[in-house]
Predict the 3D structure of the following.
Amino acid sequence: MSATGLKVFDTTIQSTNVWLDDIMRELGWDDRHRAYTALRVVLHTLRDRLTVDGAAHFGAQLPMLIRGFYYEGWHPAHKPVKARALDLFLMHITDAFLHDIEADSRQIAGAVFRTLSKHVTEGEITKVQQALPAELRAFWVAETKALATG
């Protein structure tokens, strides 16, 4: 029985829940809203560091529901942002979890990067990584290796 009456909606909800479950498992969380916040803030921060074309190509790889909140609030003018250091990337995550003292921005970014690497094609992940500054790319690659060896 369909939950929504439309297979395409049921499929995207199911896919989104799989991604959120992966993030919760990675971080040892049992709160789906925290996992959603983690995914959303990392996707937004990543998106803003890509060219408009790069962001669009990457967005096309995401399940429909995730793609919706990936693009939420996006203003493509003046992208990519000039502030592209790893610490500035992580600061956006810290800001999103300001009142969550247990949240660790490096762990959150790593969990989302591993989830993206698991569900998005390797070729697209490589393109996105290559578009990032060296420090951020190295962090993601290290997290991806952790997925492969863990």
